[in-house]
Write a structure and sequence with these properties.
Layout lengths: L3 E4 L9 H15 L6 E6 L11 H11 L9 E2 L4 H13 L3 E4 L3 H10 L27 E4 L1 H8 L4 E5 L3 E5 L1 H4 L4 E4 L6 H11 L4 E5 L6 H11 L5 E5 L24 H14 L10 H16 L4
Parallel strand pairs: 1-2, 2-3, 9-10
Antiparallel strand pairs: 4-5, 5-8, 6-7
Helix pairs in contact: 1-9, 3-7, 7-8, 9-10
EC number: 6.1.1.-
GO molecular function: ligase activity
Family: Belongs to the class-I aminoacyl-tRNA synthetase family. GluQ subfamily.
């Protein structure tokens, strides 16, 4: 089987130190498997309101400056919406998705009535208000019928293995609830889009930041509901900001400096250090990348 990996940035800003870690890791994971493996770049621009004009091209230029070149032409999610609609239609037909008329305020009030407080940065577990109908409310979103699907598969606890984090498990129905697939008047949800994209592009190995590890169980459930293969997962260490939170554009992450080979090499050396790779004795990005491919095989043992 030919192995296929991908890097899927959102064009809400330029690449920064944290996003380069994920890009480098996914590229190395593919290159460590030999010449038949393929590395793809997918621009995740489905949430058009958050995307900035021209940022997709800037990201592609930054990747190229670092020597991280995809093996096929990049894809954009906004050109793939028909695939997402087909997937949603299949879920609705199978009764694994339903319309929901609840606002965020409605959900918070329903949870408060049950004595459930929303923890900061925690999930708002959907209380299931619209599972049996909209009750006269207009639809605001489509949700995955998580608990119903878990009951059908005979298990409320999903278990999987992460190549770096090890054995993982999550009771999605209890910890997340019926999650959103699409806003009625807005973008496609990340969970559905990424599952459809990975399957359509034949992705066998997902390498991404550890902040996305919690999404994995939801995505595996969707893969099962749609009859799609489940790739292997590896979640990389995060680059942290001064406040201890994940480095992001919201807390001051600076755009990568890649205007010269020396700047690109310095950025790659920093990303490699986060991944546990040794500093490369190299004068250019290509030389450093070649040395890390060998080291990656020893550290992360990617299957052929």
């Amino acid at each position: 089987m030919r192995r296929i990996g991908r890097f899927a940035p959102s064009p809400t800003g330029p690449l920064h130190a944290g996003s380069l870690v994920a890009a480098l890791a996914s590229w190395l994971d593919v290159r460590a498997r030999g010449p038949q493996a393929r590395w793809l770049v997918r621009i995740e621009d489905a949430d058009t309101e958050r995307c900035l004009p021209g940022m997709d091209q800037r990201i592609l230029a930054q990747l190229a400056a670092c020597g991280l070149l995809p093996d096929e032409a990049p894809e954009w999610q906004t050109r793939r919406t028909g695939l997402y609609q087909d997937a949603l239609d299949r879920l609705v037909a199978a009764q694994w998705a339903y319309p929901c008329g609840c606002s965020r305020k409605d959900i918070e009030q329903a949870l408060a009535a049950r004595g459930i407080a929303h923890a900061r940065h925690g999930e708002r577990v959907y209380p299931g208000t619209c599972r049996d109908g909209l009750h006269g409310k207009p639809p605001r979103a489509w949700r995955f019928a998580t608990s119903k699907f878990e009951a059908a598969r005979g298990a409320g606890l999903l278990q999987w293995n992460d190549r770096r984090l090890g054995a993982r498990q999550q009771a999605v129905g209890r910890e997340v609830g019926d999650f959103v697939l699409k806003r009625a008047d807005g973008p496609w949800a990340y969970q559905l889009a990424v599952v459809v994209d990975d399957a359509d592009q034949g992705v066998t190995d997902v390498v991404r930041g550890e902040d996305l590890a919690d999404n994995t169980a939801r995505q595996i459930l969707l893969q099962q509901a749609l009859g799609l293969p489940t790739p292997s997962y590896l979640h990389t260490p995060l680059v942290l900001a001064a406040d201890g939170n994940k480095l992001s554009k919201q807390n001051g992450a600076q755009a990568l400096a890649t205007a010269t080979p020396a700047e690109a090499l310095a950025a790659l050396q920093s990303a490699a250090q986060v991944l546990g790779l040794r500093p490369a004795a190299a004068a250019a990005p290509a030389e450093a990348l070649a040395s890390w491919v060998v080291e990656w095989r020893g550290l992360y043992n990617p299957p052929p």
